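Why this split exists: single-chain examples teach little about how molecules sit against one another. For that reason, every record in the complexes split bundles all components of an assembly together and asks for one structure covering all of them. Below is a record exactly as it appears in the raw files.
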Amino acid sequence: MKVTADLCVIAYGTGTSMSEYIAACVRIIEQAGLKHHLHAYGTDIEGEWDDVMAAVKRCHEAVHEMGAPRISTTLKIATRTDKEQGMDDKVRSVEEKLGRR
Amino acid sequence: MKVTADLCVIAYGTGTSMSEYIAACVRIIEQAGLKHHLHAYGTDIEGEWDDVMAAVKRCHEAVHEMGAPRISTTLKIATRTDKEQGMDDKVRSVEEKLGRR
Amino acid sequence: MKVTADLCVIAYGTGTSMSEYIAACVRIIEQAGLKHHLHAYGTDIEGEWDDVMAAVKRCHEAVHEMGAPRISTTLKIATRTDKEQGMDDKVRSVEEKLGRR
Amino acid sequence: MKVTADLCVIAYGTGTSMSEYIAACVRIIEQAGLKHHLHAYGTDIEGEWDDVMAAVKRCHEAVHEMGAPRISTTLKIATRTDKEQGMDDKVRSVEEKLGRR
């Protein structure tokens, strides 16, 4: 089962800066060989369900190991059975409707 | 790693009623032996990370098997290392601050 | 336009306890006269779009005034035009499918 | 109060394609003069709280007018009082940690 996800990890009970935690998560996603796109409010990830979810778990483990006592993640997860559609296809499909492709 | 999650599965490309899909998900969560609370915009779930995530995956599989071609799930995931705190503790802690316990 | 929402406010760059912030938000929602249900990972709210969104804004203002420098909120928002359905109806509809009503 | 938001509108009780609804929302955000970034699982938006929320409301109205009977939106909303930080700054800050800037 292929999945497109949007991962947004918030670490709290710690300082105001989130960027070092997010960078650690991006490295984990990269090391897992997963296609991804970092945006201003999360990281889109594309891959097999188990691979994506294993990466999300490692993100929680890593952020706790970096010293954050609490994490609240918002994870959006999309699956479909009618056709294959990757992250780039989703954006392209909207841009076509907007007359930009 | 213990987790408190809030699972909200939206099936689309199908009819307007979501309740049969949500009921199927609640049954899966129950069969997994996970503590849970159905509310108006999702189901809170408490348990070990792997058990909760396995149930979420089975929910996607089941909802697709019921005929929904597309699913978009919003999953909130909370972990903490500073203390153990279950679903009931979270609600109780707020209600105490409100002077209701 | 009627809306059912699920509000989850995370304050960060501050301590580990979230309950005093959540309690402040619940008071704001109550003072707005909005129907609501506090659960383990958020607060479901029912009302007119503008009333619900005004309360959400006041929650952000109040949590900042309490000293939290950063807030990340996950807000789910449901609207429908096919029929009226409140928070209680949503839960009841699922419980009926589960054979519990 | 400045806000960075991530808007993900799911229309259901309708067909499987979401792109025409998302395109309509992007047009609304553009017409509101709001800075934004379309990604694979939502649209990041930056602006004043009231302007962003007014655009989100118009998105719901427009998607219903296009024929979708039900909408479930996941909206992430970030505010901060410690410093000004726009969408681009957020991404740049993570990329610096990753040694890419």
